[in-house]
Amino acid sequence: MRQRLIVMGGAAAAIILVILGLNTARNAAGWQPITQTPAEREAMLAPAWDIRQPPTPGPHKAAILLSGCDGVHDNMDYWANVLLGQDRTVMILDSHSPRKLDKVQSWRAVCAGQILPGSERAGDLAVAMAALRRMPGIRPEDTMVLGASHGGWTAMEFMAELDSDKPPPGLTEWPEDPHSLAARVGPVVLLYPYCGLLSRGEEGRWPEGARGLMILAEKDSITDPDACRQMADKLVGKGVDLHSITLPGINHGFDQSERSALSSLQLDPAARKKATSLVTRFLQGFALRKAGL
Questions:
Q1: pTM here?
Q2: Phi, psi of 185 (to 5 degrees)
Q3: CA distance 288 to 280
Q4: What is the pLDDT of residues 159-188, one digit of tens each?
């Protein structure tokens, strides 16, 4: 069975793998994450955290941004500015440079699902959320998560893992009780995420009170929007408040201009503007709902 596997978020081209079955695919990746305590993971990630504060007096609600599989690029700067305008402190969570993954390793191995799958990267998100709670000037409740491509996969894995006492792969334990983490999850935005065979995003149930917006690209040449719509339908069937929207005629990574030299993907300003409007309205609706209005 042929499947578009991953989420290159601006990488060179779609990587197609022949997959004989889900277990075979997972084993074929051959990736064994380094097992770390939450403190060790935080010590690895923290030097690369890019934390930006809005100019208004705090404390502020927070947002965590997760890049595509090719690492942090200009689309993370763009969304950081959008969310700073929503009066949120923004953390751009870099999972790549702390692991010394260069560009070639990123698009050839991460984007192919051979190393750093979304399930492992979910541990980075858990550690980041726990760390935000201890930072001054931050209101940790209703922490927003925005993930693009591989980052969207990561966000969905994290949401599924919260329904289990077992920590994400590569962590010896949760950085704090998963129910406490779950209670602080706010709006979740998923931009053209990976929803294929390696994803377990439909497993488990999202925390009560969490809401999601999934923005898909109709002409996505990297990930399969049909698979994401099916996954969204399954989650909705479990009672998850998740709304999916497909932008017509749009390709993967429409919000990113920095590319590999071989990439055929392009920034689409009109699509990015539309997505920004959708995200802004979604956040406003989430805030009104939390306020009981």
A1: 0.88
A2: -70, 125
A3: 12
A4: 999 988 899 999 999 999 999 999 999 999
